[in-house]
Amino acid sequence: MSDYRPPTEEMRFVLDEIAGLPQIASYPGFEEATPDLVEAVLEEASKLASEVIAPLNHSGDREGAKIENGVVRTPAGFKEAYHQFVEAGWPALPFDPAYGGQGLPSVLGFSLLEMWNASNMSFALCPLLTQGAVDLLQHHGSEEQKALYLEKLITGEWTGTMNLTEPQAGSDVGAVRTKAERDGTQYRIRGQKIYITYGEHDFADNIIHMVLARTPDAPAGTKGISLFIVPKYLLNPDGTPGPRNDLRCVSLERKLGIHGSPTCVMAYGDNEGAVGYLVGEECEGMAQMFTMMNNARLAVGMQGVAIADRAYRQALDYARQRTQGRPYGSSAGEAGPIIRHPDVQRNLMTMKAYCEAARALAYHTVAGVDTASRHPDAIEQERAQLYLVELLTPVVKAWCTDLGVEVASLGLQVHGGMGFIEETGAAQHYRDARINPIYEGTNGIQALDLVGRKIIRHDGATARALMARMEEFAQGLNDAGTKNGSCGPELATQLSAGIADLRRATDWLMAQASRDRVAVAAAATPYLKLMGTVTAGWLMAKSAMAAERRLADGNGSTLFLESKRATARFYGANILPQSGGLAESIVAGARTLTEIEPELLN
User: Fold this and answer.
1) Radius of gyration of the chain (CA)
2) Which of 44, 72, 232, 499 has the lowest CB atom count within 10 Å?
């Protein structure tokens, strides 16, 4: 496996030009996010990611997490690396200073999340879930609960988990059977949860589980679910960990990938019942858990970006070094590196374009979280939440993770037979990436959420607002003309065609909404892919124009900026045209699916 070097120049470019970090730094509370501080944060995080965490990725995959007599051990070096991670203050970066956080923008924190996951996804899953637990408690916890748990979670001294899934309750969370019975001011939790990431481990002194359970008289389905804080160790009066709670890790799942991450089967209440503390009111659990889930969905989207970038950079290094065959079109001479072969170049450019497009989409969306929380204008806060964060969260989760798998697969192809051999590490990227389209709500569920809750529920207003922004930008590219050989008009034509396809599909979706829900559901996945492809095309065009502006100003590396421009042109000519086929599969293809009876699937 090749060394990992975070693409800090690319990250900084996207933070500034696509996420709008300089503007975000002007919002109340974010003033410390100066250019110098951002540069220092990226540089120092890059060192930890490349020098400490990344070297444990391949060894951790081979060794895996282990359980012995109920005690879970992470792979060699993981615990020590986590302690370095905590001591340097990295978990606290985007959180409230009142509870030990550093108060920096979320989008900067998510750029670091990309580094941690690209360097070692198995390791990074622990702080990812803790981040979600913090978000949940900040929004829904009582003042007493915040005082007890937030500081330790924010600093990373304690870690957090999400406990939803049960053997009979996967995507159908309403089928949860874990019980919660009132016992004075607390509850006794009894039941089993599966697929609990870092449900037990050796990193921290305490693990704070966020558990969905059902009280005795609760209504059926999701309306009857409540949320409970269930710590591994109950707290002493001084807030330190005390006696062990009645919970345990029964076993670890055997998985396709992320072997270094312990994925636990958790048992609650084998004896007297695990002590749990209600968050908010009874039967509010699903609404509260969605706060944690939406945070996790954006984070998982960033995992898709991260694993794609890691796979791309390893494939690029290999293609530069691997000698095989004469360069195409050469009649004589010695064999050259495979990066000279057109098909390898096509694979690498596709990987690069997908990485940059997915990163732009993810950073752009997470920047909306900062705008929705800190913009001085309340109307702008509401607009950012509805028209950006809520609309694009399912797209980031699904589109970016699908691309993570595709890019990792292309990485195997660039390696050829060596990619299929575990020693190179290319196969690990593919195995690790494959979980991302599944967890935190499968990508099919994300597509249904997009079309049902985020578009149809708002009568198409959210999607049309996004298309109007993109159309205005495309028109501006055309109006700017061809000054100095700009690729603006070329990208404007390609982008306009993509937007037209998205508008056609959206109009069809809205027309079907009240008369054929099955057709809408059948079209949801290609619609999400269409929205991701076109929206990312808009952001790639913005990147190209920013690169041209910087080139004209002499602001930055010429090689880097020319590469940004070339990648945007490749995306516009080779990937954005997929929009036409996707639109056709939505408008004309959904019926061919709904007409198929299950008996025909033989």
Assistant:
1) 24
2) 44
- Nearest residue to 519 via CA among 443, 597, 592: 592
Report the catalytic residues.
440
Question: Given pLDDT bands bounded at 50, 70 and 90, which one contains residue 479?
Answer: confident
Cβ–Cβ under 8 Å, residues 205 and 158: yes
What's the pLDDT band for 483 if we cut at 50, 70, 90? low
Q: Tell me the C-alpha distance between 278 and 230, whole Å.
A: 9
Instruction: Determine phi and psi for 247, rounding to 5 degrees.
Output: -150, 155
Find the distance separating the first CA and the last CA of the chain, reported in whole Å.
42
Q: Which amino acid is at 349?
A: M
Q: Which residues are paired to 188 by β-bridges?
A: 181, 275
Rounded distance between C-alpha atoms, residue 264 and residue 268, angstroms: 12
Torsion of CA 590, 594, 595, 600, to 10 degrees: 120
Neighbours of 3 (CB within 10 A): 11
d(CA 16, CA 2): 29
Q: Is 384 exposed, middle or buried (0-12, 13-18, 19+ CB in 10 A)?
A: buried
CA dihedral sign, ordered 241, 247, 252, 256:
negative
The strand pair at 159-163 and 207-214 is best described as parallel
For residue 419, CA distances in Å to 1, 31, 111, 326 come to 10, 46, 28, 21
* Count of beta carbons in the 10 Å neighbourhood of residue 303: 31
**Nearby residues of 573 by Cβ (< 8 Å), 6 or more positions away:** 494
- pLDDT (tens digit per residue) in 40-81: 999 999 999 999 999 999 999 999 999 998 899 999 999 999
Q: Which helix (H) or strand (E) holds 73?
A: strand 71-73
Q: How many CB atoms lie within 10 A of CB 238?
A: 6
E strands, 110-202, are: 159-163, 179-183, 186-197
Q: Which helix (H) or strand (E) holds 540?
A: helix 517-553
Q: Measure the CA–CA gap between 431 and 256, rounded to whole angstroms.
A: 6
Backbone angles phi, psi at 479, to 5 degrees: -65, -30
Closest C-alpha to 226, from 212, 236, 238: 212
Angstrom distance (rounded) from CA 520 to CA 509? 6
Which phi-psi region, left, alpha or beta, contains residue 262 (left: φ > 0; alpha: ψ -120 to 50)?
beta
Question: Alpha helix locations (H) across 2-119?
Answer: 8-17, 21-24, 35-48, 57-63, 78-87, 106-119
